[in-house]
# Entry
Amino acid sequence: MEDHKQTQPLPYLERLSSTTSLMLQPLPFCTYVLFSEKDLMLYVGFTSNLHNRILNHNSGGTKSTSYRRPLKLIFCEFYLFEKDARNRESYFKTTAGKKALKLMLRTTLHTLGYAEKVSFIFAEENEQN
# Structure
């Protein structure tokens, strides 16, 4: 009769198992971009509750955006750690980050009427082609 020993899982299966459980874990922190339908400008922020934060912005509860309503969510990224979300928010507020956002969202921004503010991006693309 065969001896049935308890075997240890292979190391790569342990890694896969822990990775899978991480994938099912909610990502609680969010960096987001709002579009003002009033002044056609962008607002970048950070939150741990995106739904409530957008309601707060659109109800006038945020001083920096109260006069710019209505605001529309056009982009968000979720993170496991608060520091990562805050770092991304800070990056999007830099010149390079603003340019990256405008490149990533150029179709959305064009559709929403922001195109005149990103025309330099389209010009650069046409020069390269």
